[in-house]
Amino acid sequence: MKEVMFELKIATAPDALRIMRDGWPSRIISLVGDDFRFELPCLGPHHFIARFHDVESEADGFLAPTEDQLDHALKHVAALGDGDRLLVHCHAGKSRSPAMAIGILVAAGLTPRAALDHVKSLRPFIIPNRLMIRMLDDLLQQEGELLRVIEEHYASLPAEAALPNRGGWNE
């Protein structure tokens, strides 16, 4: 199995602000909606911010992620290597950021299963955004394998994790 060459942290928004202030990340991906509770400044060219909500389909009043946003995020971190430190965060660190982190790890050469396992080793209770996973599967030409691995993960979760309110997991 290919080894991850960069250090990865997946965080909630409050934890991410602390990690950013501490100067830890060499690259940052922020995935937040317009309902973010506090100011999120762009910290420079090493910081990519995509604004969309944690939705898995189009919904009135909510902004869904786009393939273009995810492609830009992948390109933002494509050159990560030894010694780099990547912070990926969303509001709760359970849906959007794990989905993005899994995609980044697949793009870096891990299998979808290895990417999921690595992310779960960092954040054991995740509910990756399945719309993002479908888009990442297409962008990374995984021919459904990434989606299959995530669907198996969802099948192992309690039923309430699949509810539209994300089962209260992102409270």
How much of the residues is beta strand, in percent?
Answer: 5-15%
Helicity range? 25-40%
**Tertiary shape:** globular
Largest sheet entry: 4 strands, parallel
Distance between the termini: 35 Å
SSE order in H/E notation?
Answer: EHEEHEHHHH
Poorly predicted regions? 166-171
The total of beta strands comes to 4
* Class from secondary-structure proportions: alpha/beta
Rg, Å, rounded: 15 Å
Overview of this protein structure:
This protein is an alpha/beta fold. It contains 6 helices and 4 strands, in the order E-H-E-E-H-E-H-H-H-H. Strands 1-4-2-3 form a 4-stranded parallel beta sheet, sandwiched between helices. Helix 5 (130-139) runs antiparallel to helix 6. It starts with 6 loop residues before the first strand and ends in a 16-residue tail after the last helix.
Topology (elements, then pairings):
Elements: E1 7-11, H1 13-21, E2 27-32, E3 47-51, H2 67-76, E4 85-89, H3 96-107, H4 112-122, H5 130-139, H6 145-155
Parallel strand pairs: 1-4, 2-3, 2-4
Helix pairs in contact: 3-4, 3-5, 5-6
Short characterization:
With 171 residues, the chain is of the alpha/beta class.
Keywords:
171 residues; alpha/beta; four-stranded parallel sheet; 4 strands; disordered C terminus
